[in-house]
Amino acid sequence: MILFPNAKINLGLYITKKRPDGFHDLETCFIHVPWSDVLEITESEQFGFTSSGLNIEGPIAKNLCFRAYEALKADHNFPPVHIHLHKVIPMGAGLGGGSSDASFTLKGLRDLFKLPLTNDQLIPYAAKIGSDCAFFITEKAQIGTGRGEILQPIDLNLSGKYLVLIYPNFGISTQEAFAGIKPKKAPIKISKAITQAPETWKETLSNDFEESLFPKYPLLAEIKTELYDLGAIYAAMSGSGSTLFGLFDQEIEIPASWKSYPHWQGFMP
């Protein structure tokens, strides 16, 4: 079985409270983006994991695909598998690539072995693996609250809009990003702002991580400014960084200076 775990971006991201469990409460809107990894799951005599593309570091016990396999295996009887992941989505990019890989592993195992589980029944497994994993079980844009695992679908149609994603060749760890955060009440209900025309989002939506990360990494602020100079109707950092995105009404030519950065551009489906 071959699957294509996709990236996400955040439209608005507010960190509202530090929780007793060490996590933070947030408010955001997640949307799917068709920049994808490639995941192959095949039945095997014993579990195995291999990868290609971007280098994946760390022990297998911390690999999110393995953790997804272990979580589902604990409650359901199915044979071992071999997982091969061709990694395309940059890591530490705020695009949720690892979370997507985990969630698509859950869905792939469910479908391969015909386990009697709906997407709603997979969400608790995903939420235990990572805060934004649950989103990748869904197929529509979602308002995320709690750690990001409490989801509410929202009717959002960006089809025909042109999206540009720029990863500036360095990642930002979640720990580093949250170190500069001072939680505060969201200035606006994202669910209300999102229902307005995208041309208004520049004035109503923001990403709390930009406040502390832009002074530390001036290149991020420069890319955002240039996205607006190129005609973006909305531009922001995705998640906890470091990818910047711009939403346009029409196709653009990205500057030559950005072409050495991993990037994705295309019309939204």
Task: Note down, in words, how this protein is organized.
- By secondary structure, the protein is an alpha+beta fold.
- The chain folds into 2 domains: 2-153, Ribosomal Protein S5, domain 2, CATH 3.30.230; 162-267, GHMP kinase, C-terminal domain (Alpha-Beta Plaits), CATH 3.30.70.890.
- The chain contains 8 helices and 12 strands.
- It has helices spanning 64-73, 97-112, 119-129, 174-179, 190-193, 201-204, 208-216, 218-229; strands at residues 2-3, 6-18, 24-36, 38-43, 48-53, 81-87, 142-145, 150-153, 162-166, 234-237, 244-248, 263-267.
- A 4-stranded mixed sheet has the order 1-4-6-5, with helices on one face.
- Helix 1 (64-73) runs parallel beside helix 2, helix 2 packs across helix 3 (119-129) and helix 7 (208-216) packs across helix 8.
- The mean pLDDT is 95.
